[in-house]
Specification:
The chain is α+β, with helices and mostly antiparallel strands and 164 residues long. Helix content is 44%, strand content 23%.
């Protein structure tokens, strides 16, 4: 298994990348995302405050797919020092919980370093999310890792890389 990280400077580019990943057979369950809550609220075409957390893929007359489906029912959580974020995916929730634990030192960057991301890259990811970007990563089979990386790069992700 490989973990592929990518930083997007905007939600629309990330949405398009996730759509293509889904079209190519990558599963939403493999995906993780962290984005500042206010940025997500402004980028999604739905009211996150009224979204039913038990919702299926259908929300009113709109079917949620891809990145919107991944993030729409998440609740904002504090991520020191970034602020309130939406974290979707098992690993993203783990990183946010580790960064926000009462005894945690170093916040988001330290949690990413503990996850295996080199410190200088983790700092770029933290700064990117704090500046309105979206950090996306996924675990996939070694055989499909290069395909995932190419898709993310094609959709203008920066700092695309595999970290343990």
């Amino acid at each position: 298994m490989r973990t592929i990280f990518a930083l997007f400077d905007g939600y629309p580019k990330a949405r398009q990348a996730v759509e293509e990943l889904r079209e190519r057979g990558f599963r939403v369950e493999e995906m993780n995302a962290i984005i500042h809550a206010e940025v997500a609220r402004g980028a999604m075409d739905l009211n996150l405050r009224t979204a039913d957390v038990r919702a299926s893929e259908d929300l009113g007359e709109r079917t949620l797919r891809g990145l919107d489906r991944l993030l729409a029912t998440e609740q904002p959580v504090p991520l020191p020092p970034v602020g309130d974020v939406l974290a979707a995916g098992e690993l993203a929730n783990f990183v946010v919980a580790a960064a926000g634990a009462p005894d945690a030192e170093g916040g988001f960057t330290a949690a990413l370093v503990d996850f295996g991301v080199p410190r200088e890259v983790a700092e770029v990811y933290q700064d990117g999310v704090a500046s309105g970007g979206l950090l996306f990563w996924m675990r996939t089979d070694d055989e499909r890792a290069s395909e995932a990386r190419e898709i993310l790069q094609r959709h203008h992700a920066s700092r695309v890389g595999a970290h343990p």
